[in-house]
Each structure stands twice: as structure tokens, then as C-alpha cells.
Specification:
Chain A: Keywords: Coated pit, Cytoplasmic vesicle, Golgi apparatus, Membrane, Protein transport, Transport. Chain A: It is a peripheral membrane protein. Chain A: Belongs to the adaptor complexes small subunit family. The structure holds 2 protein chains of 2 kinds. Chain A is an alpha+beta fold. Chain A has one domain: 2-Layer Sandwich (Beta-Lactamase). In chain A, 49% of the residues lie in helices and 24% in strands. Chain A is built from 5 helices and 7 strands. In chain A, the strands form 2 sheets. A 5-stranded antiparallel beta sheet of chain A has the order 2-1-5-4-3, with helices on both faces. In chain A, strands 6-7 form a two-stranded antiparallel ribbon. In chain A, strand 6 and strand 7 form a beta hairpin. Chain A is globular. Among the domains of chain B are: 217 residues, Leucine-rich Repeat Variant (Alpha Horseshoe); 110 residues, Sandwich (Immunoglobulin-like), CATH 2.60.40.1230; 105 residues, TATA-Binding Protein (2-Layer Sandwich), CATH 3.30.310. The N and C termini of chain B lie far apart (81 Å). In chain B, strands 3, 4, 5, 6, 8 and 10 form a 6-stranded antiparallel beta sheet that branches. In chain B, strands 13, 14, 15, 16, 17 and 18 form a 6-stranded antiparallel beta sheet that branches. Chain B has a 4-stranded antiparallel beta sheet with strand order 9-7-11-12, with no helix packed on it. In chain B, helix 23 runs antiparallel to helix 24. Helix content of chain B is 52%, strand content 12%. The chains are: A alpha+beta, B alpha+beta. Chains A and B meet through strand 2, helix 1, helix 2, helix 3 and helix 4 of A and helix 3, helix 5, helix 7, helix 9 and helix 11 of B.
Chain lengths: 147, 1059
């Protein structure tokens, strides 16, 4: 995977993760272009589109769009499931997650993403294991607060 | 070199800080930590990009000052970092903070370090010069004994790491491949994968170690290694041909479902892993016949499983939905076929439930029904839902309309079970054996040829079988007990008594002793265990009236009247005028009523000390049958918890000749001339199709979205018992009702109707059902229909305090927009059916718009509806309503909260579902509405709405039994006596008030005591036991939540004072 973007229906970026080295200027340009392209698409249109030399896989959950860029030989269906599993993870962690959870706790959303995908590859697909890792780190924080 | 850099860093004045905040006031810190919240809110409130830019620049300059100030603590720094990330996400340059991110990762304790590393990975890319400053921190953390620190370091390395610094960490990471924790091994593999990508030469020497990772016992580690292999094989497939066997084996295990279940993704085993393996195999087998041959089997299997998993679930669901009386045999046969080859528990449970439901609804004949249920019990065995055997037994016991047919069905069941028990060396699931024992015990008398003795002998054979659980043995002994009066003489019974009265299992021993004693008095036993009477209401003399003589004698000799323990305790307390905060749940067990665990049970006893003759209205010979009663009568087949013993293994295939016959018949009926021209396979398919779709014409209405209940069921349960769950409750309930005066009785009934009304799932029928309920209502039958209706709507007490129960109809416009939106967002959907809601209240307005809100008390949440009316003659654009995050709530925007255009003088509604995160006493929700007028002028209006915890209290509908169980399991206990005026002090009116104003559910009323239950959403139950004693109302709350009882007590007192 090359990058993942989360943005709202209003086009506000909520989370960005880049797995390839790009300049800030380039990142901004890509984000702007993709947000526009995806938001302009009608609900019944395909979740996949070819964009530059990449494939874009996106899915909308309530007011939030999850958008991934993958390479030509990657499988877009399994990418769509990656998105869904990430949403499931967020949902399990926050408890019926909504956009506000991600806005106000975006660092948590990043932590979860980093336990699920690492360096652009799927790291762990067991929901239990991913959340265990997050909880472990969270727990240590709690412990620290107490002491 | 990096050492020097680090030292330089250390030297920078004001950059290194102690962990101590230096005595800064905690209030300042708290406000500091919510800065992100206010920043986000501030930005949301803005209307132009220009304003945003200004605000962010301001924020950035304040951040810049803070991060470089010497007094900034690491904790504050962490918070700053989060805001910097946020600013960068919005597209503003925050590069001045990069160095501080590195510092935070280096110096922070876990909490801060985690954010520091995150910021670094988001801010920098792998060729960024500052990244070199991170190397030492990474090295240090990799050597840490704290797992979380090691994980963080590995995570950052796997994302960004300067290529030239790889040698500094490589040996450390190699070591981690042998780490005892799988998460560390997994991350180490991924870090090495990263190195392989950016500097393949540097990791060449550890290729052998990758092989170890591939064989790791942890799935995650193995899966991580596949990333490396995919890459390496892509580069040079010939170098890894020898691994083909390993990949094939792994894939075989994956598709065979050998992985832990949490790797399943929607019941597909590890799809990501499968795809990865398939890609690898694809590369290895390319242009290589010999290697490819190794994969054929597993590829075939993967393909088959993929189709099966995907399509079968769908097909079965479809079949289930199209089933009707004509095609049921063929559909159930298909389902059974799949059931027999299915291994996954979820599939079995699901399918077994469907088959049982279809069989019950559409069974064409007795034999088919019993055979099908046999298959269900054999395969579903101990995993199926306990409702299935319960419903089955109830159906058998209650029968349907035709008594002869009932008897035939029962006889068939008995015969079929006897046949099954004759088969040697077959083990049936415990639940199935229990079903058999009950049926044999009840209905063996229908047999012509076999004598009760023969049946008893078969049951005895099971009893001495070691693989039968002790719970099942209790069922078996009960069956034998029921058969004993019918048997003339049986050595088996004597032997059984002899053997099992010395059983080590107390339950079995108890049953055996009961049998022994009853066996000594055959006459008594006959009257006690009459034939085919399982459906008769069992009247238990709960008042123990047969002890009246004994009590009277005691009283005449000067004994004090009996008072139950808790009453005594209470009286002592009120004399002492001290509150007792000790939970006194233990008094239940000490009061000596075995098997009665609810306060209801206790008070039954307490009531009757003096006047038992009055309450014990319907008494029979008054025998107590504690042990046997459990299995006999309606109670006998209530769900039971079962210990999972390893007896699922030998589930036998059930003979299905009758099913086959049915199918054959269906097939042969079809048009044969047409079939002649087609190939055999084609023909079969077509015949199957026609037998499947028979009866699906236009005349039969089949609802694809849910089984319509208009279809007449083969085995329709008698309505008499439809609503009552257990005979015992009914009796008590009746007794209570009849003891009330006619007035209070009516009031109670009133509530009862309201309850049933509320219980109804089909809420759209509310008004009609109300009407029909009235028709049944005896108390009002003299009134003409119309009057009845109006009377009802007048007298129907509002469920809620402000007397405004209405059916909620969402406004037309919003329905339209919601419908529109719902096609966009498949999840987060909320139904807009009808719920009870509050008055509409105006919350704010200006010259252009007015906003009003109301609360809709949905079953699972509070739905806040804000209706925005455009009062002006102008079109409004981008109307957007947002709610600020609130401390105790979780507010979820329902689809449709941004309206592009609002026409002049129109109304739009915005819905938010509100869920509670922790109990509170007073809360409010505030938000704002923003809109544009004529594309230029923008405006914003704030508002706020108060919420009370009562908005989240819902009735909890449980049975008295469940109440008793829950009561004992709750630790938080609050008790209070409330004084009432003489006029108030009647239980029915008190209960009614509590039901209406606090939304408590009346579980049961026993004498002068009432049991109520409610829950705080999402699911924190709270129970209330109340009792009227003269003019004192004793309230006793219990809950799993510590604050809820106090809160409810407070509300109760308020309500009582107010009424």
C-alpha cells in the first residue's frame, strides 16, 4: 500500500499515512486531487479507480471516507477488506466509532493503524491481537498515571 | 557520530527538561490537555478558509513559543505534538516541531514516547536529515527490558529508518527474531522486510533466519515473513522452489480452518494470508510444470472452499427465505446435507436454528417432523440454541388443535427414539438424550407393544453408561420415575434405586431417593404422576397452608407471629434510627427456603404467617415435589445450563428415508416429456429447481425481508400458553390480582395493557393493538366500542412525566432526505420507526431560522432531533448542524446532517443518537447550526439542551426468576424508607407512578411487595424491590453499577414527593 487517507464529506482530512517517501508539496497535491475526485463520485459508482499509475480503493462509512492507494499488481478486493477491518478495529476500540472519535483521538486511530498495517503491509489480521497490543500500551499509560 | 549529535542536543539550553512539572497547578495542566479539543472546535466554528489560516497561524506561533520554552514539561510537549500533527494534517507547516518530536521520543516516559515516535513517523520521511538523531533512541529502546518500548522502536524502524544506519540496529533486530514474545518477533520480521526493501544487500546473510520465521508457531510471525518471501521470490523465484512444499502445507492448514478462529474474517479463514500465499505459489509455479503439480490439490481445495464459504451462506439464506409448505422438504434436505459436512460451530448453530424453525412452521407430516428434529438434535447437539429443544418439547406437550393427531405425533416420537436407542455404539448429544428421556417418560404409555418395563430397561442402560452426563442422568431418572407407576413390577427399578441411592452425585442421589420413597407408596405415586398431564397447571400451595394447624397451635401457646428475617431487621433498624449500609442479601439463604432465591420467593413465605387460608386460594392436596417438579410440568423443559463435555464427537447420521421419499415424489410429479430431451444432470437440476420454487407464485406472499407471519403454521401453539412463561408465575400472579380490590385491579390491568403494548415489536400497530387489547378486556366490555377507544386513550396513563405520549412520525422532508442518505451509508443506520418522544421545545432562533428539539426515547439510545425551520424567504445553503463533544455522552451524527440547500420556509431535521458513556446527574448537549445566506453572508447560532439520566433509563423486561438471579448477583445495594401520606400508600398506585415516571418495568407483584426493573442504556440493569408497610414505602435498589441505585433512589423520592 502506498498511502491511506481518511477525509470527511466536507473534504477535511482526518488521518493520513504515507508508506512511500514523498515531499510535503507532493503529498498536499495528491490529497487535494484525490479528495476532489472521490467526493465527486456518485454513491453507486465503483469503489475502485485507476489514478495515475496507482489504483485507488475507497469506501465511505457514514460521513467519513477511507481511501487507499495500491500498486497495479495489488488486489483491490482484499484492500477493501483491509479498510473494513480497520473500521472494525476502530469500532471495537472506541465502541461504535464515529467521525468525532477519530477527530478528537486521531493519535489513537494512528496507533491502531500502526498495529494493523506496518510499512504499508498487513502486520496482523487478528482483531484480538491488534487490540491486545493497543491495550497493553494503554494500560502502561494508566499505570504511569497512577505512579 | 550520533553520540555527538545527542550530546549537542543535550547542550541546547531549555530543551531538556525534568519530568517534574515543577509544581505547576494541576488546573492549568488539565486545561492544557483539552487544547486539541478547543482547537478542533475553534476550527469547526469558522466559516472561511482565511479565518482558518489566521487561527492556525496563531496556534502555531503559540505552539512554537511553548515547545521552546524551558518550563514546558514533557507532558505538555506531548500535547503540543498532538496539536502539531493536527496542524500539519490541515496542511500547515509545523517543521519547527520536528526536532521536539525526536526529543520527546528520546526523553519521554512511555506515554510521551509513544506520541513522540508517532509524530516522528508522521513528520519525517526516511531521507530526512533529522532522522539520524533518532538512531540512538531506537538503539536504546531496542535494548530496553520494557516490551512496549521495544515494540515502539521496532514499529518506527519498520516505517522509516535511514539506510546508512542499518548496521547500527541490525544485530539487535536479528536478536529479536528469537524473542519469546510473538509480537516482538513479528515486528522484527517486518523491520527486516523494510531493510530488505531499502538495502537488500545488508540482510542477505540472514535469509536462513527468515526460514525460521516462516515456520514460527505464531501465525502472525509466519504471515509477516511472507511479505519478505513474496518480495524475494518476485526477484528470484528459482531460488525458493524448495519452499513450495512449505507454502502448500501452510495454505492447506489455512483453508482447512486449522488457524485460531480470530484469524477468520467474516467466517473466511485468514483471507489476507490466503491471498499472499496464492501470490507466492503463483510466482513459484510460473512456467514450471513440476512445481505447479505440487499445488494442484491445495489450489483446488482453496477454490472449492472459497466458493463454498461465499456462496453456500448466501444460498442457504436465500433458501431459508423462500421456504413454504410445498418446498419445505427439499429445502430442508439441502440444508441437512450441508449441515452434515459442515464443521464450523457458527454455521451449525445458525443452520440448525433455521431448520428447526422451518420444520416447526411447515412440516408436511409427523414422521418428517420428528425425523428432521432428530437430525437437528443429533448434529446441533450441545451447541444449538436451548430454545430449540424447549420449543420442541412444548410443542409436543401442548399439541395443536387435533387431539388424535397430537397423540400420533407423540407416539411417533416415542417409537422413533426407541429405535434410535436400539442402535448399538452410537452416542447422542446430551441435549438429545434429555429430549428423549422427557418424551419417553411422558408418552411411553401410548405404546401398544412395548411395555413400560421395556422402556425403563432402555433408560436404565443409558443411566449406567459413563458417557452420559449427570444432568442427563437426572432427566433419565425422572423419566423412570414417571414410568414406574405404570409398570407392574420391575427388577430394574429396584436395581436402579439400589445403585443410585449411593451415587456420588448429589443430584442423582436425590432423585434416586425420591424414586425410592415414592416407590414404596404406589397409590400416592399414581396420583402424583398422572399420565399425560404435563400441561396441566401445577398448583403449588405456596402458602404452606397445611401447616396452619401447627401455626395455630404455636400461636395459641403464646408464640410470636412469624416475621421474616429482613422485616425483623428493618424494624430493629427503624427503632434505632440508624441506616444500615450492610447489604443483607445473605438473609435470603438464612431464612431456610431452599430453591427460592428472589425476594419474591421470600415474601411469599412472609405473607402467610397468620392468614394463609386467604392467600392460598387454590389448593390441592398440597404436596411439595421439589425434586421431581424440576422435570415435570412446564418448568421441566426450561433452558438449562450445560457443562460442555466432550460428547459432540459421535453425532450419528440420521436415517432419512422418509425425506428422500418425499423428494422423489416431488421430482416424479414433474413434467416428464420435457425432461426426456435433456441430459441427466440438466434434468436433475431443473427438477430440483421446480421443486424448490413450487408455491412461490403470485398467490403466495413471501416476504423476502423477513418471514411474514401470515403463513399458517403447521404446528401453531395454542394461544392459551403463548404469553405465560411458567405456570408458577401465572398462579402467583392470579392470586395477587384477585386479592386486590376491584379498583386497584383495574388500575393494575391498565398498566398491564400498557406493558403489553410497549412490548409489542410491531410498533406501527400500536393504536390498533390497543384497540384489540381492549376488546379482550373484560373490565370494559359493557362500553360501546367507540367509547372504549376514547376511554382508553383518555385513561391510558402516559409513560412519561410530562404526559405527552405520542407516536413519533418523522417529518416528511426528513424521511425523504434520510432515505436518500441511507443508500449512501450502509452502516450507522438508524431506523426511523415510531418511538415515544418528548414535547418539541424551541432551543434558539433568530430572524432567519428557528431551531427546536425533541427527545425520542428509542430502545437503544436517545435520539435527539433538531428541527430547523427557515423562516426567511431566502434560500439557505450549507446548513450544517454540529454538536460539540460532551463529557459523558457519545453523540453520533445520523446521516443527513448537512443539507446543501434549504428552501425558503422549509423545515429540515437533524438527528443525533446519544449514548451515555458514564452515569451522570445533570448533563447537557450543546452545538450550533451554521448556514449561508445567498452564498455570501454566513451565520451561526448556538444552542444547548439539558439531558437527564432518566433519558437513558429504559424498562427492563425480565421474569421474576431472572429478577431473583440478578438480585443475588448485584453488589451495590441502597435502601431507604420513604414516608407517604395515607392516601398514597397503596402499592398499585406507587408502582404505577414508578412505571410511568421512571420507566421502570413491573416484574411482579406479590402481596404488598413489588418487583421492578430497569436498565441504564446500553445495558446496566438496576432492580428495585419495594414494599409498603403502613405508610412507609421501603425501597431497596440493587445494581451492578454503584451510582445508579443512589440516583434512582433520588428520583424515586422526587417522584413520590411530587405525586
Amino acid at each position: 500500500m502506498q498511502f491511506m487517507l481518511l477525509f470527511s464529506r466536507q473534504g477535511k482530512l482526518r488521518l493520513q499515512k504515507w508508506y512511500v517517501p514523498l515531499s510535503d508539496k507532493e503529498k498536499k497535491k495528491i490529497t487535494r486531487e484525490l479528495v476532489q475526485t472521490v467526493l465527486a463520485r456518485k454513491p453507486k459508482m465503483c469503489s475502485f479507480l485507476e489514478w495515475r499509475d496507482l489504483k485507488i480503493v475507497y469506501k465511505r462509512y457514514a460521513s467519513l471516507y477511507f481511501c487507499c492507494a495500491i500498486e497495479d499488481q495489488d488486489n483491490e478486493l482484499i484492500t477493501l477488506e483491509i479498510i473494513h477491518r480497520y473500521v472494525e478495529l476502530l469500532d471495537k476500540y472506541f465502541g461504535s466509532v464515529c467521525e468525532l472519535d477519530i477527530i478528537f483521538n486521531f493519535e489513537k486511530a494512528y496507533f491502531i493503524l500502526d498495529e494493523f498495517l506496518l510499512g504499508g503491509e498487513v502486520q496482523e489480521t487478528s482483531k484480538k491481537n491488534v487490540l491486545k497490543a493497543i491495550e497493553q500500551a494503554d494500560l502502561l499509560q494508566e499505570f504511569q498515571k497512577v505512579h | 557520530m550520533s553520540d555527538i549529535v545527542e550530546k549537542t542536543l543535550t547542550a541546547l539550553p531549555g530543551l531538556f527538561l525534568q519530568n517534574q512539572p515543577g509544581g505547576g497547578p494541576s488546573a492549568a495542566k488539565a486545561s492544557f490537555s483539552s487544547r486539541l479539543g478547543s482547537l478542533v472546535r475553534g476550527i469547526t466554528a469558522l466559516t472561511s478558509k482565511h479565518e482558518e489560516e489566521k487561527l492556525i497561524q496563531q496556534e502555531l506561533s503559540s505552539l512554537k513559543a511553548t515547545v521552546s520554552a524551558p518550563t514546558t514539561t514533557l507532558k505538555m510537549m506531548k500535547e503540543c505534538m498532538v496539536r502539531l500533527i493536527y496542524c500539519e494534517m490541515l496542511g500547515y507547516d509545523a517543521s519547527f516541531g520536528y526536532i521536539h518530536a525526536i526529543k520527546l521520543a528520546q526523553q519521554g516516559s512511555l506515554l510521551e514516547k509513544r506520541v513522540g515516535y508517532l509524530a516522528v513517523s508522521l513528520f519525517l520521511h526516511e531521507s530526512h536529515e533529522l532522522l539520524l538523531l533518532l538512531v540512538n533512541t531506537v538503539v536504546k529502546d531496542l535494548q530496553s527490558t520494557n516490551l512496549v518500548e521495544v515494540c515502539m522502536a521496532l514499529t518506527v524502524v519498520s516505517q522509516i529508518f535511514p539506510r546508512e544506519m542499518i548496521p547500527a540496529v541490525l544485530p539487535l533486530i536479528e536478536d529479536k527474531l528469537q524473542h519469546s514474545k510473538e509480537i516482538i518477533r513479528r515486528k522484527a520480521v517486518l523491520a527486516l522486510y523494510k531493510f530488505h526493501l531499502i538495502a537488500p544487500n545488508q540482510v542477505q546473510h540472514i535469509h536462513i533466519k527468515f526460514r525460521k520465521a516462516l515456520c514460527d508457531r505464531d501465525v502472525g510471525v509466519m504471515a509477516a515473513s511472507l511479505h519478505i518471501y513474496l518480495r524475494m521470490i518476485k526477484e528470484n523465484s528459482s531460488g525458493y522452489k524448495d519452499l513450495t512444499g512449505s507454502f502448500v502445507t501452510i495454505l492447506k492448514q489455512v483453508v482447512g480452518g486449522k488457524l485460531p478462529v480470530d484469524f477468520n474474517y467474516h467466517s473466511v479463514p485468514a483471507p489476507w494470508l490466503q491471498i499472499q500465499l496464492l501470490r507466492i505459489l503463483g510466482l513459484l509455479g510460473k512456467d514450471d510444470q513440476r512445481t505447479s503439480e505440487l499445488m494442484y490439490d491445495v489450489l483446488d481445495e482453496s477454490l472449492r472452499r472459497a466458493e463454498l464459504n461465499h456462496n453456500v451462506t448466501y444460498t442457504l439464506e436465500l433458501l431459508y427465505r423462500i421456504t413454504n409448505a410445498q418446498n419445505v422438504t427439499v429445502i430442508v434436505q439441502k440444508m441437512l446435507e450441508y449441515l452434515h459436512q459442515s464443521k464450523e460451530e457458527y454455521v451449525i448453530v445458525n443452520l440448525v436454528g433455521k431448520i428447526a424453525e422451518l420444520a416447526e412452521k411447515y412440516a408436511p407430516d409427523n414422521a418428517w417432523f420428528i425425523q428432521t428434529m432428530n437430525a437437528v438434535f443429533s448434529v446441533g447437539g450441545d451447541v444449538m440454541h436451548p430454545d430449540i429443544p424447549n420449543n420442541f418439547l412444548r410443542l409436543l406437550a401442548e399439541g395443536f388443535d387435533d387431539e388424535t393427531e397430537d397423540q400420533q405425533l407423540r407416539l411417533y416420537a416415542v417409537q422413533s427414539y426407541l429405535t434410535l436407542l436400539d442402535v448399538e455404539n452410537v452416542f447422542y448429544p446430551q441435549r438429545f438424550l434429555q429430549v428423549m428421556s422427557w418424551v419417553l417418560g411422558e408418552y411411553s404409555y401410548l405404546l401398544d407393544k412395548e411395555t413400560p418395563e421395556e422402556v425403563i430397561a432402555k433408560l436404565y442402560k443409558l443411566l449406567i453408561n459413563d458417557s452420559v452426563s449427570s444432568e442427563t442422568k437426572a432427566w433419565l431418572i425422572a423419566a423412570v420415575t414417571k414410568l414406574t407407576p405404570q409398570a407392574h413390577s420391575s427388577n430394574t427399578i429396584d436395581r436402579l434405586i439400589q445403585e443410585f441411592t449411593i451415587s456420588l452425585d448429589t443430584c442423582v442421589r436425590q432423585h434416586a431417593f425420591e424414586l425410592k420413597h415414592l416407590h414404596e407408596n404406589v397409590e400416592l405415586m399414581r396420583s402424583l404422576l398422572p399420565v399425560d398431564r404435563s400441561c396441566e397447571d401445577l398448583v403449588v400451595d405456596a402458602s404452606l397452608s397445611f401447616l396452619d394447624g401447627f401455626v395455630a397451635e404455636g400461636l395459641s401457646q403464646g408464640a410470636a407471629p412469624y416475621k421474616p428475617h429482613h422485616q425483623r431487621q428493618e424494624e430493629n433498624l427503624s427503632q434505632e434510627k440508624v441506616l444500615n449500609f450492610e447489604p443483607y442479601g445473605l438473609s435470603f439463604s438464612s431464612s431456610g427456603f431452599t430453591g427460592r432465591q428472589s425476594p419474591a420467593g421470600i415474601s411469599l413465605g412472609s405473607d402467610v404467617s397468620g392468614n394463609s387460608a386467604e392467600t392460598g386460594l387454590k389448593e390441592t392436596n398440597g404436596l411439595k415435589l421439589e425434586g421431581i417438579k424440576k422435570l415435570w410440568g412446564r418448568e421441566g423443559y426450561l433452558p438449562k445450563k450445560e457443562s460442555k463435555t466432550g460428547d459432540e464427537s459421535g453425532a450419528p447420521p440420521i436415517p432419512q428415508e422418509s425425506i428422500m421419499e418425499n423428494v422423489d415424489q416431488a421430482i416424479t410429479k414433474k413434467d416428464q416429456s420435457q425432461a426426456l430431451t435433456q441430459s441427466k444432470e440438466e434434468k436433475e437440476k431443473q427438477l430440483l429447481a421446480s421443486s424448490l420454487f413450487v408455491g412461490l407464485g403470485s398467490e403466495s406472499t413471501v416476504n423476502l425481508l423477513g418471514k411474514a407471519d401470515t403463513v399458517s403454521h403447521k404446528f401453531r401453539r395454542k394461544s392459551k400458553v403463548k404469553d405465560t412463561k411458567s405456570g408458577e408465575t401465572t398462579t402467583t400472579h392470579n392470586m395477587t390480582c384477585s386479592s386486590f380490590g376491584s379498583l386497584s385491579n383495574a388500575a393494575y390491568e391498565d398498566n398491564y395493557y400498557l406493558n403489553t403494548l410497549h412490548d409489542r415489536g410491531d410498533k406501527e400497530l400500536k393504536k390498533f393493538s390497543l384497540n384489540s387489547e381492549l376488546l379482550d378486556s373484560e373490565s370494559l366490555t359493557e362500553l360501546p366500542l367507540v367509547e372504549k377507544f376514547s376511554h382508553c386513550s383518555l385513561s391510558t396513563p402516559s409513560l412519561f412525566a410530562d404526559n405527552n405520549m405520542e407516536i413519533f412520525h418523522p417529518p416528511q422532508s426528513s424521511t425523504a432526505s434520510v432515505a436518500n442518505e441511507s443508500s449512501l451509508a450502509s452502516s450507522f443506520l438508524e431506523e426511523t420507526t415510531e418511538y415515544i418522544h418528548s414535547d418539541v421545545m424551541k432551543v434558539c432562533n433568530n430572524e432567519t431560522i428557528s431551531v427546536s428539539s425533541n427527545k425520542v426515547w428509542k430502545d437503544d439510545c436517545l435520539l435527539m432531533v433538531w428541527s430547523v425551520t427557515n423562516k426567511s424567504g431566502l434560500e439557505l445553503k450549507n446548513a450544517n448542524l454540529e454538536i460539540f463533544p460532551a463529557e459523558n455522552f457519545k453523540v453520533t451524527e445520523q446521516p443527513g446532517c448537512c443539507v446543501p440547500v434549504m428552501e425558503a420556509e422549509s423545515t429540515k431535521s437533524f438527528q443525533f443518537s446519544v449514548q451515555i458513556e458514564k452515569p451522570f446527574t445533570k448533563g447537557n448537549l450543546s452545538g450550533f447550526i451554521s448556514y449561508h445566506v445567498m452564498d455570501t453572508h454566513s451565520a451561526q447560532l448556538e444552542f444547548s439542551v439539558d439531558l437527564s439520566l432518566l433519558d437513558f433509563i429504559r424498562p427492563l423486561k425480565i421474569s421474576s426468576e431472572d429478577f431473583g438471579k440478578l438480585w443475588l448477583s448485584f453488589a451495590n445495594d441502597v435502601k431507604q424508607n420513604v414516608k407517604m401520606s395515607e392516601s398514597q400508600a397503596a402499592l398499585p398506585s406507587v408502582l404505577k407512578t414508578l412505571q410511568q415516571k421512571l420507566r421502570l418495568h413491573i416484574v411482579d407483584i406479590i402481596g404488598n411487595e413489588g418487583l421492578l426493573a430497569c436498565q441504564l442504556l446500553p445495558s446496566i440493569p438496576c432492580l428495585l424491590h419495594c414494599r409498603i408497610h403502613a405508610d412507609v414505602l421501603a425501597l431497596w435498589f440493587r445494581s451492578s453499577c454503584s451510582t445508579l441505585p443512589d440516583y434512582l433512589l433520588y428520583q424515586c423520592q422526587k417522584v413520590m414527593e411530587g405525586s
